[in-house]
Amino acid sequence: MKLYGFPPSPNTRKVQAVAAHLEIPLEFAFVDLPKGATREAEFLLLNPTGRTPVLVDGEFTLWESNAIMQYLASMKPNTLWPADARTRADIARWQFWQVGHWHQGCGGFLWENLVKKFLFGQEGDAVALKQAEEAFHRDAPVLDGHLANRHYLVGDVITLADFSVGSYLHYAVPARLPLDRYRNIRSWYERIEALPAWRDTAPSI
Ligand SMILES: N[C@@H](CCC(=O)N[C@@H](CS)C(=O)NCC(=O)O)C(=O)O
Fold this sequence. Notes:
By secondary structure, the protein is α+β, with helices and mostly antiparallel strands. About 50% of the residues lie in helices and about 10% in strands. It has two domains: about 70 residues, Glutaredoxin (3-Layer(aba) Sandwich), CATH 3.40.30; about 110 residues, Glutathione S-transferase Yfyf (Class Pi), Chain A, domain 2 (Up-down Bundle), CATH 1.20.1050. The site of glutathione has 11 residues, from helix 3.
């Protein structure tokens, strides 16, 4: 199987972390995002939405990082994505929440405070940062409250949900995520950071 991705992106890294955790070998194809490689015709044949990551498994091509994570984790029995229907629904709930809601705050901070500087040498836009801050403080209390008496998001062990929701936090400091008041989120992310699969897939920048 071949994964097309950009290692500094949280969406690529969470897929790589799942593969590493489950010891599923993946051939890696670097997609040069800063050079606009996702808009080239060859890449658009893989993913017409022009985004990474993309997994190619023989004749099957799959995009959307959370779908790729579920597909990889379906290949063998494991605790990241157990077979039980309710546990899967619970994990999927958090993965949908990540992409639909949590991303608004986290993704906004990453884009404004980090990616813009890295790609274009620009400072973050004050209005966009204000919107990201509002979204962040709307959703972070829910996550923090959920983690008050739990080590992980679903059940007692790490699952796909933790990799998806936690994926932005590697950049908490440079993206200036306002995490100060969310102690439970910070200690939960420390548990994710301690995982070999997360450490081994850390981007070099
Ligand atoms: N919901 C998608 C988001 C993918 C996405 O936004 N990927 C970004 C990198 S983080 C990308 O490839 N952007 C390329 C571009 O916008 O040109 C997923 O989870 O896979």
